[in-house]
Design a protein that fits this description.
By secondary structure, the protein is α+β, with helices and mostly antiparallel strands. 50% of the residues lie in helices and 8% in strands. The chain contains 13 helices and six strands. Strand 5 and strand 6 form a beta hairpin. 43% of the residues are buried. The chain binds zinc ion. Zinc ion binds next to strand 4.
Amino acid sequence: MSGMVVQLDTASVSSRYRSAVDETVTELSLLPVNPAAASVAALVRSGLQHQDVAGVLAQAPGGVERVIEQAVDEHQRWRPSVASNAASAAALVRILLLQQIDLAWWAEAPDFTLADDVARSTALVDLRDARSAGGVRFGFGVASDRLHRRVRDYAVQRARPSWEPRGPGLPFVRARPEMVALLNEVADAVALAAPANTPRLWVSSIVRSVAHQQRLRSLGYSALLPSAHCRGWAADIEMWWFDRFGASAALRGVLQQYLHAGVLNVIDEGRAWHVCLAPTATSRYEGAAQQLDRPTRRLKLWP
Ligand SMILES: [Zn+2]
């Protein structure tokens, strides 16, 4: 029972934190175009003074001062671009501030710095192996699989337009088994709530190395660092694509349930929604995680 108390408490702190962030971001969006860095800093600083916000940020790496500095930096750096997943500078600051919940949760977890660290980690499983064994119930593409994928894409698009979203696919096909079990469970819950003939949930990103994240930034993507993706505890789920099947409301509803239960941090990042698993909820997925090498029956749905 005590575990439940901690989870509910986590959810209520995160809900107060989210309201404070929303207020701050609304004020940021009302600033004139190209505001001075000092005005952005002052606004973010005053927004972050709220007790609940300060409590979350005190646990994030570098504390409040780092977050203010990064918020100003990202705000000034933002440019309208197809590569950016934020629609405005204020929206990017919102994503940054909400991701601090992930970082407060996983402050002690080490980063996967290079591709080699991802390849060698014993905490990760190969998603293709797990999929071949029937242990993966969500869709994903594989970025490195280019030739095979081009041929297959052509066949898929001819047969069934929009059956899979366009995108580069996962940069790394390894993931924490607990994250696979969580995404399986979310996929099952969405399948029950979505209209008939909706395709499987599509996951566009799970693990990323710090080096990969830096490369995305250099290409103009709003890839933030530090990031729970680089610690293996976050994933991005395609939302806009689900709209084509009238299924995005079902997906949003399921994600909101996990958010309110304190199991996931959930961030609307536009095309895809970002989720991060709470440390207090990982034990829930350990049993299922050990069975990824065999076809899994549907788990008891939760919440
Ligand atoms: Zn993400």
